[in-house]
Description:
By secondary structure, the chain is of the alpha/beta class. It is built from five helices and twelve strands. The strands form two sheets. Strands 1, 2, 3, 4, 5, 9, 10, 11 and 12 form a nine-stranded mixed β-sheet that branches. A three-stranded antiparallel β-sheet has the order 6-8-7.
Amino acid sequence: xxxxxxxxxxxxxxxxxxxxxxxxxxxxxxxxxxxxxxxxxxxxxxxxxxxxxxxxxxxxxxxxxxxxxxxxxxxxxxxxxxxxxxxxxxxxxxxxxxxxxxxxxxxxxxxxxxxxxxxxxxxxxxxxxxxxxxxxxxxxxxxxxxxxxxxxxxxxxxxxxxxxxxxxxxxxxxxxxxxxxxxxxxxxxxxxxxxxxxxxxxxxxxxxxxxxxxxxxxxxxxxxxxxxxxxxxx
Length: 234
């Protein structure tokens, strides 16, 4: 059965106010550009968004902040977005900062059906406040709950019509985890092939986790920061 849709908006008929969206990407690397824009145009509000960060002011998830569609952000880094800072200070945005490895494991656990796990990360800090703590082998650990979402929005380099995915190098980042932990997963891709055209050894994530596939065009792939070496010979 083909999961390919011609109109990205078809995937979001069931996206309602107050839902939780898991968004792949790291900075601006591997973000689902077209999918984020579709949510922006739909106008869904009071969203809880789980992602490593929240894009920049005018790109990525920052586009949803701009329209005040995000009520709560669960992320590990928030330093590149002035709108984010303003909304946090004025109290219109709830923020749950989570250590990056813990955030990844929360999503992985959610996708694997594991309700909670123990980690040493955050022991003795504000991160541990209000959380169950236990000792294992003479070391203290805190319990972290898994994360699940209503929708997962993902960017992949290639997909077949069933949804088997191939990611491009570091653009894999949080994308597979968000896909696995969501009830409904929407994937935008740059290349679409027929089922069987991807070597099984090349598949990074099985299509069993994918509900919708959208073949995008004209990806901006904006670079967040450029560090270039000066021409010493010039």
